[in-house]
Amino acid sequence: MSHLLKAVLFDVDGTLVDSNDAHAHAWVKAFAQLGVTVDFARVRRCIGMGGDKLMPEVSGLSEDSPIGSKVATRRGEIFTTEFLPKIQPFKDAGRLVAAAKNLGLTVVAASSATKDELVALLEIAGADDVMDSATSSDDAEESKPDPDIIQAALKRAKAEPREAIMIGDTPYDVEASRRAGVRIIAFRSGGWNDADLAGAIAIYDGAWDLFQQLDESPLRGSHTSQPAAGKTG
């Protein structure tokens, strides 16, 4: 069965801007400053989760613990001062968001970033004045891979799950989307391979790739809700 598409929900980190490595480095540096050694590769694989889930996964610490809360605060400071000024948008990121809007679709950011970081990242992407709305970690009880942020974005878009498509770059985006009942287009630009992104209805190299192939993509009009090959259950 096909459904008319009404909204596109965009992840931002790793999807519209090339920031995943920067986030990982900021986490590692923040942990180190609080006397905790974590493995960069392990942290990098967790980028895309909310910080509340990443922290115990890589260090065993809770974000609510005294050290954990200090690490979280320091990470934000390090990311904002040392890494954010150097982050670059992916090619055609802003043009892709604008093109989706030109198709008559509502475009909403659905990110695990904090609200302040999200504002800056959308500006870097060239999408800050194009997005109809944005949801951040501040708008959700649970971060990705829980579906809360996507559900919040659906409300902002005034769309049912079957009327929306998510665009993201991590397995956590895929899982969150599927748990929300939303189809997802995945990008390889965040550093994951096709096997990691199984369950997406389509996989592209990045924003530039989807932008070039927009007319043949799932963003054009109504389409089937059947996902592409990969895990669906």
Task: State which percent range the strand residues make up.
Answer: 5-15%
Low-confidence stretches: 222-233
Give the overall shape: globular
Major sheet: arrangement of strands: 4-3-2-5-6-7
- Count of separate structural domains: 2
Q: Separation of termini?
A: 19 Å
Order of helices and strands: EEHHHHHEHEHEHEEHE
Identify the CATH architecture of the largest domain: 3-Layer(aba) Sandwich
The CATH homologous superfamily of the largest domain is named HAD superfamily/HAD-like
Helix content: 40-55%
Q: CATH topology of the largest domain, which one?
A: Rossmann fold
CATH class designation of the largest domain:
Alpha Beta
Outline the biggest β-sheet: 6 strands, parallel
The SS-based structural class is: alpha/beta
Number of helices: 9
How many β-strand runs? 8
Could you please describe the fold and organization of this structure?
- Helix 1 packs across helix 2.
- The protein is built from nine helices and eight strands.
- The chain is of the alpha/beta class and 233 residues long.
- The chain has two domains: 155 residues, HAD superfamily/HAD-like (Rossmann fold, 3-Layer(aba) Sandwich); 67 residues, DNA polymerase, domain 1 (Orthogonal Bundle), CATH 1.10.150.
